[in-house]
Amino acid sequence: MKATDKQAYLEEYELLKKKGKPFFPYAVMKDSAMALIVVGVIILMSLLLGAEQGPKADPTTTTYVPRPEWYFFFLFEVLRVIKPPELVPIATIGIPTVCMVLLLLLPFYDRGPERRPERRPLATTAGILTILAMGYLTYAGATAGSPTEIDMKVAPQYKAGAEIVAGSGCLACHKLGENGNNGPGPELTHIGDRIPRAAIIRSIEIGPSIMPSFRELPKEKLNQLADFLSSLN
Amino acid sequence: MPKLSDLLVPAPLRKTPKPGEAGVPTTPAPQDLKSAPPERPTDLGRTGEKALEAPMEATAWIDQRLAASGFLTGMLFRKVPKGTNWFYTLGSATLFAFIVQAVTGVFLAMFYTPSATQAYSSIAHINNDVFLGQFVHGMHKWGASVMVILIFLHMGRTFFFGAYKYPRELNWVIGVVLLILTMTMAFTGYLLPFDQRSYWASIVGININGTGPIVGPYLSDFLRAGPELGATTLSRFYAIHMLLVPGAIIALIGAHLYLVVKLGTTAPPWTKTGKPRVAEPTSDLDAGVSGNGYHPNGAGATVAGVRVDGHNGGGATA
Ligand code: HEM
């Protein structure tokens, strides 16, 4: 913005302000009405939705699919879209950091004097696209399967392992046949074919990348899990 | 001794004094009104009058020492520009949601124990035994979502209205930091109930931080505060959620609001000054991008007369 533009803006603003109304009581009334609505909505949500506790945190069993609060779904979805391991850092930290820096510096690179959205086609389009992208990613995260059971043919001796997979939230991140989500983890459908049993156990114990470590699982369960996975080929 | 109402209300907005008050000639009241109230004993009446004046005197006493009334009048009676609409309530709505979080959070803190062994049962205690416990807990839990929604709506409003442009760039920057801090609150608060969901989601969240280039592993080590997610992680998240971030948020909201008052809020970008402009087509919506839309036509418009500050005319400045 040129110095003359700045001056012009200040002059115009001073005029608009002269024609305005005092903050009290006009703006205060609107703000108070809005405050009442906000508190009302929060009270209503608390009464209707409550604050139920889930089962107690337990490192030795994972009876819950690890799912973030809804406003972090978009981040989880970015991870699902960008899967190759070497790109994961870009998805997890890179993209959000770049977005935040771009957001923070916005007033320093968008310096034109125009303020009407319909006359700032670039900014307005970028804004709307960002909203659509966030909305889509959140929606995709919300509707992604949160599977707790596996619908596939399993030989009787592997039943126990399959149930652990179902109950441990692995399918939040892994695809297994027709079950689970394709990403952020690699597909497990033919995992027994791809890597040896020891490597599977190591992955489960270490928890590579964003995968949680399941080393607190009792030995017996771990073995059943590994038996089931290495049978998949 | 100046009266409170005189201190707070700038001259143009003052009520015209009633008959009988200083400087206004008394017009005789109608006969029936005059005789209606029975006379009170004089000494009682004077005590009553004194009692009425006491709060004013106290306010004036305080104000002589604080000299805040000028600022308060400037703030309350500052003008908001023409066209200000409901979209402008989103900021104060965010503030209000934050206040709800702060108040309900204090109540939860009275009963919550940030230890890996007791956190879960202390939340169960709040939910099941404490009077209105689940209600307050629910308000805090859902208030978080409401605040996140409101802060994004408020950011959207300032974005589409171009409110981040000169001279409000700094307020936008402060706002983005507030956004990051609010998301940090959401992330750290999620672990505190210490149920399965919060436990496993926090592990994944910490691992996500850990994949970051260079600083990633340090960041996740810092958050986890040990090789495993456990007691130390919980107290660390608790300290961040209860002290560090709320303190920063309060300070930054203070700075944010200071700038809002100091610079004034924008008018919606479509608001017309009502002053004819050079090269301004009649219909704004049909107009193409016109670079000089902001040049006022008054060629000799004084430059010196324009100041950017919260106080405006009307005798508001102290
Ligand atoms: C805790 C969070 C926040 C609170 C309590 C808050 C509060 C407020 C309030 C009360 C106003 C007055 C005008 C209005 O309500 O629209 C305002 C203005 C403003 N806020 Fe925020 N805000 C917050 C976060 C943000 C964020 C995340 C951004 C953007 C990234 C932002 C950018 C701005 C800007 C640019 C203005 C000036 C708007 C104008 O003059 O029209 N704020 N804020």
Question: How would you explain this protein's 3D organization?
Answer:
The complex is a heterodimer of chains A (233) and B (318). Chain A has 233 residues and is an all-alpha fold. Chain A has three domains: 1-52, no CATH class; 59-146, Helix Hairpins (Orthogonal Bundle), CATH 1.10.287; 156-230, Cytochrome Bc1 Complex, Chain D, domain 2 (Orthogonal Bundle), CATH 1.10.760.10. Chain A is 56% helix and 3% strand. Chain A has helices at 3-18, 23-49, 73-81, 88-104, 106-109, 121-143, 159-167, 191-194, 197-206, 219-230, and strands at residues 21-22, 175-176, 179-180. The longest helix of chain A is centred in the N-terminal third of the chain and has 27 residues, at 23-49. In chain B, helix 7 (133-160) runs antiparallel to helix 8 and helix 8 crosses helix 9 (196-210). Chain B is globular and about 70 Å long. The model of chain B is unreliable at 278-318 (pLDDT under 50). By secondary structure, chain B is mainly alpha-helical. Chain B has helices at 4-8, 31-35, 42-66, 69-76, 90-109, 119-128, 133-160, 169-191, 196-210, 216-224, 231-263; one strand spanning 79-80. Chain B is 57% helix and 1% strand. Classes of the chains: A mainly alpha (233), B mainly alpha (318). At the A-B interface, helix 1, strand 1, helix 2, helix 4 and helix 5 of A face strand 1, helix 5, helix 6, helix 7 and helix 8 of B. The complex binds protoporphyrin IX containing FE (HEM). Protoporphyrin IX containing FE binds at residues 88, 90-92, 94-95, 98, 151, 154-155, 158, 161, 163-164, 168, 171-172, 175-176, 178-179, 182, 253, 256, 260, 265-266 of chain B. Protoporphyrin IX containing FE binds next to helix 5, helix 7, helix 8 and helix 11 of chain B.
